[in-house]
Every structure is written in C-alpha cells, then in structure tokens.
C-alpha cells in the first residue's frame, strides 16, 4: 500500500491550469434616500472558514472595487446604522441598496444576529475578531469557553462535546505542543488577533486517527507593508494574583512576512481536595489537601513566511517555552473506626515540589500551487524535558512525630518528529487528495526514590523507583475524493495507519512490543439549500492510542496513601460515530452518536488492611454515547444580543468491576447563556452563565455545578488601546464533587476546588507603522463601531 501511494503522488503533477484574476466593481446606496453610502465596509470572505480575503471601504460616491482571487467566496456589506447585506460573488453589484436599521431601542424587536457562524463540511466556523460575543474576553482560552460545542475545565483543558480533547491547528496546520505550552499559547492570543475558529468534531480520514476532534485557529493577518505590534496584559486577582503578558510583532515586505511572539506569565494559583473513603465494616478516612503553585512561564516563537513567487511559498517557525514551578502541598488524614467512636490515627503530610519544563520546537512548511494542483510539505519537531524533585514527609499530627520521609527525583524526556506530504488536484467540480505521514515518538522516564531509614540516612528505594521508555513509530497514508453536484457535496476517504511500539519497564524487566495495521474510512455529505440553510452528515472511524503517562507503571502520589499507576498492557481504543448538523442562519443544531470499544479508563481499588487507595488503568469492553447540541443567537434590540447553547448527553458504559458488571445509562445536559450589551460611548458589557446538570459514569456520580461571569470592555484612542475588566465565577460555585454510586462496595466522596473565582484586568495596546496601506483594511465592523 505504501509503495502504491508514493507512485500515485507524482501522477498528480500532470494537471496544471491557470488562475486568473477577476475585478469586482460596485456602488452602495441608501435604499430610502438613494444617496451614496460613504465608508461602507465591503468584505470578501472565504465560504469554508469565514476568513477575510480582502476588505475595502466605499468612497464618497459609494463606489468600491475588489480584486477577487478566490473561487469559493461571498461578499458582506455593512455600515453602522444599516442592516448587513450578504451577496454571492456572482451577484449584480452595479447598484446595491442598504436598508437603514430601526432607530427606536425602547421597543424590543427580535432580529437575526449578524452572520458569525457558518458550516464547512458540517464543522462550525465561528468568526472571532469583531464578534460581539468575544469583545470582553481576555484571551483565546476565554473565547473557547463561549464557543458552541467547546468547553474548558478548571485547569485549562480544552474539550469538544464534553469528552474529546481536540488537536489544535494554526492556520490549517497541526502544531505539536505539550499541554502546558498549548495553554500558554492560547492565553497569549487576544481575540482581536484571531480571524476565526473552526470546530471539527468528526474529522475525516485526511487527518490522524488520534484526532477525534480538531480546533483550527485562523490568525488575523497584517495586510500592510511595514511593521505592526500588539501588547496584551492580564492580571488575575483573588487571594493571590497571577499575571500574563504577551507581545506580538509582525513585519511585512513585498515578499516576506516576519513574526515574533513573546509571553511571560507568573503568579500563584491554589487548589483544594477533600475526600471520604471507607468500606463496609472498616475504618473511616477523611482527607483534606491544600496546594499552592507559584510558577513562572516564559516563551518565545519567531517565524518567517517567504512568498518566493506566485507558485511557491516557504514558512519556518522556531519556538521555545520554559516553565518553573514551586509547589507546596499540605494534607491531613483523619481515620476512625467504622462507627467513628475511636481515633485510629491522625497524620499530616507535607509535599514540597520543584518542577521545571523546557520545550523546543521547530516547524517548516512548503507549498507549491499551480493552477488546480497543490503540493505541501510539513515537518514538525518537539523536544520536551521535565524535571521534578519531591519531598514526602508524613507526621503524626498530635505529637508531630516523624512517621515516614522519602524523596523522589524525576527526569522525563520526550522527542517527537513528524513529516507529512500532501497533494491535491482539482478536476472540474472534484478534488482528489492523497498524502503520507511518518511520525516518531521517543519517551524516557527515570524516577528515583530514596527513603529515610532508621539510621537517619536516605537509602535507595527500589520498590518505588522506576525506569521506563516508550518508543513509537507510525506510518500513515490516505486518499480522499470530494465532488460537488450542484448544491450537494460528497467527500469519501480511506486512511491506513501502521503502528510499531515498544514499552520497556526496565526496573520490572518487562517489555511489551506491538505492531498493528488499521484501516479507517470516512464519509461526509452536505447540502446547501441556500445561504441560510445547510445540512450535513458525516461518519468516521478513529483510533486512540494510550499515551505515555497511561502506560508507565510507576506511582504518581496525591498523598502517602493515595496514588495512581499506569498500565503498560493497555490496548488502543476504536471509535465509530456519525454526526448530523443543520444550520439555519446562525442557529446550528447537531446530533452525534457512536460506540467506543476498549475504552481506556481508571478505577479505584481500596485496601482495607493498608488503607491505600490506588487508581489503576484498564480497558473497558465498550461505551455507547450520543449528544444533541444547539446554539442560537437572538438580537433583542440594537444594543442587546443573547446567544444560547443547549446540549444533552447520553452515555451507556459497560464496566466490569470487582467481579461485578455495571452497565448504567447516564443522561445529563448543559446550558450556556451569553448576553452582550452594547452601551453608549463604546462600552460593551457581557454576562455569561453556564449550568451543568448531574452526570457521571458507571461508578461515580458528578454533582451539578454552575458559574456566572461578568465583564466590561472599552476601546480608547481610535481603538489603539483596549481595556477589559471581568469577574469570573462570581459565586465561587464551580467546584467538582463526585460520589461513588455503589455504597455496598465503598463509600467514596471527593471534591476538587480550583481558584477560578477571579477578578481579571486586561489591557491591550496596538501600535506600528506602514509604508503604505494595501487593499485590505484591518478594522472590523465592531472596531469601527467602538470609535
């Protein structure tokens, strides 16, 4: 199969056709007075991802001109005081009439909101820059919290559909980052720098099998020659403070675009954990943990995009991300007999930690585009080094007597290399694509424990110490075919992935070697009834491989008697799902259903003799799931917009546990309401509320929770200075509480609390100069309104 694909790729070179340039001229008039409309904003947008291709303003006679180079595009015309108008590229532009908006704001009139959402192959594409819903957001992570189908947990983790961790793409290209580096990057991007987001909840065979979801971030480009910059700073304040600083610079010449991004974050965050655990007729244990993290993160990335000629483009990006953290964890364990009449022991543990991470990455991409043929190459390299030193000190709380003391020294190194080549050929209304990818991951882990002996000396502890390495190679290839039949578009694809992996638990003298080939088909179809109505249906089969932390069989301690252990024998899981999506204007509704086999999960195991609670990894036979999500914006008045998101979820999990089988059907829902008030003098107020109903799985119940955020935004000095103030999680109500369902087995209740109730102050400042302004004008509709 590999040889056939490589022979097939050069054949695509034989198709080469011209790419002409078309000029569009038009005139904009007031529909009532027939007078020319001066400075109306004319935007040419890409139909698939809402990316702005070109933007101009009408002159004093209402005349404009666009140099159109895109086949798949449409035009948006907007002017403050007039209703927005959308036109197909093939429309008549000789005389365009704009209708004035209603001026009476005391009357509540429900109207359709501005067009901020589109579908592209069934994926939601949301405009960001200029979108009222995101004007008060401090950074892109806050934007994602308000994006339909996306959720953010308390630790900054990003999820699609409440369960999928998506891959992050930048301008259509995958970027290999560690989870910590990714969070820093998302926090460094203000919404004003992002053109759009595409949320792909069911990727086709073109993408890696592990990508169950994708979020593609399209950055806003500087269309001017010369240089441009932006500084964005955020301060989070509660009991402690945390600060984020990001500087973005770009410099454009006729042939080259340079970019530089630097960020520096530092401060303190806190976390609390409370738990109750007991078996029938055994001791009752209560755990309380308080944790402070004082951390510093700084990163830098620089890149250059070389437009060598009309056919060839080369890009390169270098980046580094560095993190240091001093963590102090203080815990107590209060244990009584089963009727709580007698104290068994009362201990206190201290766990100071020094942690550091260094990331280095390089990305190179090359594109050749000639007529209907396109060839692209992408290479990625990421190197991550983690170091961590821990002290675990356990004392008897009443007497302060030292009960145990051990130290750990961890060194973890990860190297990831990927090379990918893709080719596509346009043949009439059809697109033929094929590609190959090779990736290699090497992970080495060495953790050493030393325990204080009775002689008051630290000695090597072989029971806890561990050396583990994991090496993985993946060869993958795909072919896909897309064709448009009038308003109907069909896309079929097939992907293969060959995985070779070796996990070596050196300390335990255990080697697990695997070599397997999987075929992964996909299919999607979409039908555009008109500009306001779209329907799409898609199917895909995906594979999820266990990651290093799930395979490594060493202990990660939460407390001296509570830890989790990896399982080197975990198998990959396979997911088959279908998705149906319908859009009516900005109202989007989607339904997803599927089944996952060999689900990877963790389960608790309590030892009543030692009072140790372990969390162990395993594969479940299967899990069925379904969800229905809808999002609809409503414009109540000229100054009041409401966007509502409602999602319902279903999970049916088959879980063997302690010689029993638990197969429960769990239903839950989530409701989000985002209200935006555009006040006089350019002020914008945002009120965001989120409610999550009771949920869980076959073993645990997760209790309901909610959050409310309030924020205010104002631009100054012709939009060069942007200020925001927010109060997130006003009622400090977003903690996570879990309860074990089966009390006859174990009574286990636990609560996680993060310091997400914060006051946030944000300042953004744009600066720069240019030799002259190109056809594109950078100000968006919302930026013009704020003047």
TrEMBL record:
InterPro entries assigned to the protein according to its UniProt record, in alphabetical order = Beta-barrel_TonB_sf, CarboxyPept-like_regulatory, OMP_b-brl_3, Plug_dom, Plug_dom_sf
Identify the residues that the record assigns to the Outer membrane protein beta-barrel domain, covering every copy: 367-765
- This protein's GO CC annotations: cell outer membrane
One Pfam family for this entry, by name?
Plug
Q: Domain TonB-dependent receptor plug spans what residues?
A: 137-207
Q: What is this protein called?
A: Outer membrane receptor proteins, mostly Fe transport
- Report if keyword rRNA-binding is assigned: no
Would the keyword Membrane be found if you checked this record's keyword annotation? Answer: yes
The species this protein belongs to is Chryseobacterium oleae
- Report the locations given in the UniProt record: Cell outer membrane
Keywords (A to Z) from UniProt: Cell outer membrane, Membrane, Receptor
